[in-house]
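Today's session is about reading a structure prediction critically. Students often jump straight to the picture, but the first step is always the sequence itself: look for stretches that repeat, for charged clusters, for runs of hydrophobic residues. Only then move on to the predicted structure, which in these notes is written as discrete structure tokens rather than atom positions. Here is the chain we will use throughout the hour.
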Amino acid sequence: MAKNETLATLNRALITRRDELRRKLGVEMDDMAATSGGDSGEMASAGNDEEMASMMAEMGSAELAQVERALVQMQTGHYGKCEDCGQRINLERLKALPFAPKCIECQRASENNSYSASERRGRR
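Below is the predicted structure for this chain, in token form.
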């Protein structure tokens, strides 16, 4: 597949995912607004449901931000560059995760650093 064709395919995948996330987040926000009110038992259950919906919305919002960032990078010619080391992100990685902000090596290093930091906090 030619480079331009591959980029067009990735662009379509990003736009599709962006639209899905926008739709999903809109529905989740509507659901959270609809669950307000009721008796104390219903409110406790709704509170748990709202908390879960809020966490899911937060994760969806973060992914949406990454997708939109990738689309902007595509428009400006910066798409596919690792935000840490500046090297090109492997095409196979981009096919699997079109909004990947880091090459696999930098992503692993970042995850290892996060794990080490949380492990250190747990020992205190």
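Discussion point for the tutorial: The mean pLDDT is 84.
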